[in-house]
Amino acid sequence: MELYLNAALLTLLSLVTIAIIRERNLFGSIILFSVYSFIMASLMIVLDAVDVALTEAAVGSGISTVVLLGTLHLIKAKEELPTKSTVLPLTVVAVTGLLLVWGTCDLPVFGVSDAPIHKHVTPYYLEQSIPLMGIPNVVTTVLGNFRSFDTLGETTVVLTAGVGIMLLLRSRNTKGGDQI
Amino acid sequence: MKFEAIFRVVAKILIPLIVLFAFYVHFHGDFSPGGGFQAGVMIAAAAILYAVVFGVDEAQSILSQRAVAFLAPFGVLLYAAVGLCALLSGKNFLDYTVLAHHSKHAHHIGILLIEIGVIITVSCTMIAIFYAFVDRSR
Fold first, then answer.
1. Based on the structure, what is the number of domains in chain B?
2. pLDDT digits over B11-60, tens only?
3. Do A158 and B42 touch (CB under 8 A)?
């Protein structure tokens, strides 16, 4: 069952990707990106990563679509055809892609429990979550307790991104300085 | 941005449900998937839906740009303040055991507090980004 679901979702995903590449109308591209994120969220649910799916659905197909549409309001709605030759970029992308695929050959088989990443601190987290904190959701205890320092950094990164965008887009109008 | 009646009516029904689900994801994070970040983006999505349907001015009269710009760093500071509480009591940074006598209680309170910091920062940052883009489009 899961195999068929995965196959169907991944096929849809590759079809949408091809459609995104071929689409020249930017409005269409944005909607296709939204569809892509939604399929990705469904795929995350099949992989039992519901929290990632929630984020992907809300940010990927919700907020970023609205922000991209807001950007589209400012620019032309049609993507220009490339003026320079695309041979070199295509080669770079193809070679990088092949290298990445080659790199995955050394990774442990998908989903095996004795992969190195599951043997370092993970057993400690899994065993100590309930005795130490009484919280059955280990993701929450890892994010909020075992690694709360990382989460503080992550939250700061989100804030920094927001501050950066606010400074880039807003400062000119509010300060009354040079208006573009 | 004025839309047809169906869109407004559906949004009116949906937005409270989205916010309710976001708070469920937040406060039930101990037992089910999700937490501050997921809840934060969901609240931001609800606020953005409100702004798209009822107009940005209407949304900004409820949650102004100043309020959003103030609350986004406030969340991070709340998070860091929990850490500082532990530091000032002579424990390690972000050691929750100083927050209550019983260790498990302390962890619950600590995680809840930092997650509230996360939800405030994430939702307000997302809304602030949206406001910044909309401001440029006008």
1. 1
2. 999 999 999 999 999 988 888 888 889 999 999 999 999 998 888 898 89
3. no
Task: Report the percent of chain B where pLDDT is more than 90.
Answer: 44
**Are A162 and B29 within 8 A, CB to CB?**
no
User: Which among A71, A133, A170 has CB closest to B107?
Assistant: A133
- The per-residue pLDDT for A122 is 84
Which chain B residues contact residue A41 at CB under 8 A?
A: none
Distance from the Cα of B48 to chain A's closest Cα (Å) equals: 7
ipTM: 0.88
Q: State whether B128 and A173 contact (CB < 8 Å).
A: no
Q: How far apart are CA B97 and CA B84, in angstroms?
A: 13
pLDDT digits (tens, 9 = 90+) for A101-132: 999 988 888 778 888 888 888 888 888 888 88
Among A9-13, A91-95, A126-130, the least confident range? A126-130
Show me where the domains of chain A are located: 1-80, 112-175
